[in-house]
Amino acid sequence: MKIVIATTPIRPVPVFFPPVGSLSLINYLRKNGVEDVEFHHIDGNRPTYEDALARIVAAKPDIVGISSVVSTAYHYTKQLSLDIKAALPNCLIVVGGNLAASAEILLRRTGVDLCVLGEGEKVFLNIAEHAKTHHQASDFIAVPGLAVLDTNGKLVNTGYEAQISAAEVYDLDWQDLEENCDMGLYVIPAFGDDGVPMRPQFRRDARSFAPHRQGKNFTLLVDGKGCVAKCTFCHRWDKGMRYIPVETFMQRIDEVVARYNVGFLEIGSENFGSDRRWLASFFEEIKKRDVLWYTGAMRTKSVSPELIAAMKDAGCVAINYGMETGSKKILKVMEKKVDLQDNFNAQKWTADAGFETVVQLVLGMPGESPETIRETVEFCKYSFTLHPELNPNNLSINYAQALPGTPLYEYGRHQGLIGQDLDGEEEYLLRISDRDAHDEATTLNFTNYPDLVCQSWRPLINIEVIHAFVQKFGLEQYRRVMRGEYTTAAPARDDGYFGNPKRLVGRNPVPRTGIGGLISHIVNGRFGEAIISHPTLFYRLRRFLPLIVFLRNLTRFPMGHNLRLLRQYFAFLLSYPQRRSDDKFEYVSLRKIVWEDAGAISSDDVEMAPLRRGR
Question: 161 pairs with which residues across the strands?
Fold first, then answer.
C-alpha cells in the first residue's frame, strides 16, 4: 500500500517551524509496520501547483494524507483533493489538521473522503490497516477519530481516538526532512557575516559572543503539545497539555546538536513552564549542554523573578508571551485566565533580567473599543519604556481572525458575519484562504466601530508606543536602538511569523529619516515604515489616522470599497453619541456568550457540534 503525506502552504514563504505534525505521523506509521510512506513537503518547497499535483499523481498512492494545519488552507486543499480524485478516483483522500474542524464542508464540497478529528498518528494507522480490506469512504465508520459520510450521505462523527504517549509526541526522523527539502529553512546559521547573531533574541546576551559559539547553528524544537488554556479565538484539537519527558527531549536536543552543529535553540511551545517539576528537571539537564535558548511562548501567570533568574542561569536569553491585550475586559472575552497585573509583572521582570521579548497582540475581539485600545496602549507604553535598550517596535499586532472550531467563529455566524449554511461558511473559508490574522482586508469586524477606526488601531498603538519611548529616552536613543538592533549583514526574510510593526522592522531594519525618506515611503505605499522612521510627525497626525488609513487604502482596494468605508465612517461620527449609549456589550467569556446565551444554530448538523465547540 502506497501512502503520500503532503503539507499545504500556510504563510507567504516557509517559516522556520518544521512540519512536526506530518513528520511525526510518518515516523509513527513506519514504526508500526507501514513502510511505503512518501513525504511531499509542498509548504517547504513551494513548487507550482501543477508540479505539486503531478508529483502526487505520479506516485499513484492508495492513500493521500493532506496536512492542513490552519483553516486558511481551504482553497488549496479543495483544489488539490478534487484534482487528485479526478486523476486517481480510487485513491482515499484524508485531511488532518485544524481545517478538519470544517469536516462537513470538506466532505460535501471537495474531494476529501475522511477528516481526522484530533491527533492523527493512531487514527491514520487505523485507516491504513482498514484500507487493506475496505475501499469505500463509508466503510471507515468503524474507525474512531473521523468524520465521514455514510452510504446515505449522512455525516457521521466517530468520536476521538486515544492520544499517543507524551514520549511519542513529535517523534520525528530528521532524514525525512533532509530528503524532501532544503534543510537551510530549519537549520540556520546563528551568526551573520558581520559576526552578529542573526536572531535578535540572542544579541543582548554576552554569552552569545563566546568564542566557542562562533559557527554554531540555530533551530527549533517543540517540547510538548497542547495548552492549559482555551482562548476563545484559538482552535486546537488537543485536550490539556502534554510535555515530552525531559529525558526524551534531551535526546532530541543532543541529536540536533550532533547532527547539525546546533548551539542556539528556540523551544517551540505555547505553555513553556506550566509544569514546574518538568521545568526543574529541564533546567538541570539543559545546563549540562551549554546551549543558549529562548521560549516560543510562555504564560505570564507562570513567571516570577526567581523563575526568570533560573531560566537565565540555564541558558535562556529571551521569553515570548501571548499577552494579546492590555485590557482587563478583553482578557475576559478571550478567556485568557490571567490577570492584567500578570502581564504587567511579566514585562517588568523580563526587562529587569535583560531579556528580549515581543509583545504580541490580537485586536478587534467583540467588545473592542477605543477605551479598551487605550488600555492596551498604556500597557504597551509601560512595557517598552522599562529600559532604554528595548525596541519599541517589537510589537506583533494581528487582528482577531475567526477560525472554525472557536467561539469567535460561531459568534461571527450568530452575528451574520459568516453564513450559517454550507454556502456561507464555504464562502468565508475561501475568502480567508492564504490570508493570515495580519490582514485587515479579510478580517471580520466584530466591533461596534467602523472599519476605518478598527484599521487605525494598529498604527495608533505603534505611534503611541514609539512616542512614549522617545519622550522618556530621546529621539537619538530611539534611532540608535533601531540602527543597532538590526546590524547583521544577512538579508531579512519576511516569513509572516510576526505581525506589524515587528514584521516591518525585520524587513526594513534601518529607519529612513528626513523628507526624502518620508517621500520614498509614501510613494512606495510603505505606511508602516513611514511611522517607524518619522514617529514625531505621525504622533502629531494621530487624530487623523482613520483618514490616513483611507488614503493608504486607495492604493490597495477598489474605489467602491474605499468609498463604502468612508461613508460608514462619517455615518458613525454623526451617530456616535447614540451608539455609545446603546453599547451594552457584556464583558464575559465569548464561550459563554455563544454557547450559553445564544446556543447552537438550529440548522446545524448535530454531528458537527463537538467540532464547533472545540476541545
Answer: none
At 279, list the grid cell: 521545568
pLDDT exceeds cutoff 80 at 509 = no
List the one residue out of 466, 501, 615, 605 whose CA is nearest residue 108.
Answer: 605
Where are the chain's structural domains?
Answer: 187-357
CA–CA–CA angle 241, 242, 245 (5° rounding): 150
Please tell me the pTM assigned to this model: 0.94
* pLDDT more than 90, % of the chain: 80
Q: Contact 459/531 with Cβ under 8 angstroms?
A: yes
Q: How far apart are CA 142 and CA 410, in angstroms?
A: 29
Alpha carbon distance, N-terminus to C-terminus of the chain: 33
Which tens digits make up the pLDDT trace of 441-497? 788 999 999 999 999 999 999 999 999 999 999 999 999 998 875 554 444 555 667
Residues of 512-551 as b/e, b for ≥16 C-beta within 10 angstroms? beeeebbeebeeeebbbbbbbbbbeebbeeeeebbebbbe
Peptide bond into 189 cis (omega under 30): no
Q: How far apart are CA 323 and CA 132, in angstroms?
A: 48
For 187-357, CATH gives 3.20.20.70
Determine the Cα–Cα distance for residues 433 and 67; give it in Å rounded to an integer. 15
Q: Is the dihedral of CA 479, 484, 487, 492 positive or negative?
A: negative
Please, what's the b/e burial string for 242-262 (b: 16 or more CB within 10 A of its CB; e: otherwise)? Answer: bbbbbebbbebbeebbeebeb
pLDDT score of 149 more than 90: yes
Mean pLDDT, residues 80-93 taken together? 98
How many Å apart are CA 322 and CA 316, to the nearest integer?
18
